[in-house]
Model the fold of this input.
Amino acid sequence: MRNSLLLSMRKTVFAVLVLLLIAAAGYYFVTNRGAVDAGTRTVATETTPPAQSPEPAAEASPAPVQNDLPEMPLLRSDGTQTTARSLTGNVILVFFLPDCDHCQREARQIGNNLNAFKDYALYFVSTAPLPEQEKFGKEYNLSGQPNVSFAQASPDELYKHFGLFPTPTVYIYREGGRLVKVFRDETPVEQIIAAL
Done:
């Protein structure tokens, strides 16, 4: 009886260890499958691509313009609808929540250094109601600035296009919507400015 109980416990422990090993391997595969370099949007992997047979040279067609800004609906503070993809020029998306203390400190730092952001359109995007965003903008001297806008996005759309992320999160895009850099969580403004 004791031997069968011991054997049963060993089988259970072995099964649990196998499941943990499979889960760890799956997690490793998902998180380390490839590293994305936002500057070139290439994926680095551990394997090399298969060799391709040489084909006759064809007329070069222009490469499609890559726009990394998502097709995410935004409701601006003036009530107009737009999408993130339709934003033009150098764009910074700052995802925030008005009652988040990290977001408040980030907004204060950005507000105190607005001159460094003069070549960028800053869009503070939140799921919070627009009146709360308006109050936030006034409190941190961001409202009324020519290059600062506030917009509301639905939680579903944010998750669909960006997944889960902490607030604040800052996405920097260059002309044409090319993603340059992402800062997750509160970041010293000097680091953000250095990426511009």
In short: The CA atoms of residues 114 and 145 lie 9 Å apart. Residues 2-32 form the longest helix (31 residues).
